[in-house]
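Researcher: Re-running this chain for the archive, since the previous output was lost when a drive failed. Same request as before.
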Amino acid sequence: MADSASQIFAAPAVAVRGPLLGNLFCVLSMALWAMGFPAIDTLVGRVPPLPMTALRMGLAVAFLLPIWALVEGKRGVMSARWWQGLWVGGLGFGLGGTLLFAAQSHIDPVTLVILTACSPIFGILLECLVDGRRLTVWLILGLMLSVLGGVLAYLAQLDLFAMGAAVAARGAGFFIGAALVLASVMFFTWGSRATVRALPGMTGLGRTTVTLVGALIVTLGLSLAAGQLGTLAVALPQFSPADIGALLIYSLGALAVSQLLWILGVGHLGIGVASMHFNSVAFYVMVIMFVLGADWNWVQAAGALLVGLGVLLAQRRRRGGSAAVSV
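Model: Regenerated structure tokens:
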């Protein structure tokens, strides 16, 4: 029974099958990830970001680890590539997340998420340099549409004059923040690919769990080093039931399940195409807020449409060829 159940979470090393399942994984992953933004809004500022990140990682690991042990058994957990997984997770997701946290003190949130629209560029470059992926006209066109759609979605509610004033006010600090964001994106992109490539023979569930354990170790260590972990002991008893529900959505849905689906999607599509889905997150957030009573934004919807078109074009097969990554 465990063997058959584990097949649900299996992820191929590269995109060897039709892209439908991989795209479905990525769409669901991004939709769940987007849920975390409105959910965590009630907790922002009440706990410093570093211990909040460590708490979020801890809850995600506490959720995934028993499921992994139940599905694959003690032998599957003990025989996992723990050393590689901890290293990849700590560097890719732990350090990457910390750099993103550090950038927030130098750069405004809208510019931050606009810069994350560059993630497909890093993903495609990584595949070209390391995996020998060949650039095609369709891939380049799809990449351009994805980045354009992502930027358009983020710019939909942006006051350009206000952003220009913020850049002028922060001066060199703005560029430091931008550099930290881009470094974070590179680490996360590398970590997503390495999670699939460096852990052969493991299921997506196992890969996700061990790498999140690595990220937990890094964020926990940084919180201790910064002397901020004690703030959790003060803040947690003051959380209302609504706060706890928001934290569970933020940790379990928007991280644990979302990350599992993301790793499965990367396994089917490759990091280049999968990362294009990141640029639709602003649209998913807008849909969630619309359901909660906010206004509909047609510009963001148009941006999401461009992202979707870009994803489709990037996977267009050459005549007699394949859209899969060459290995």
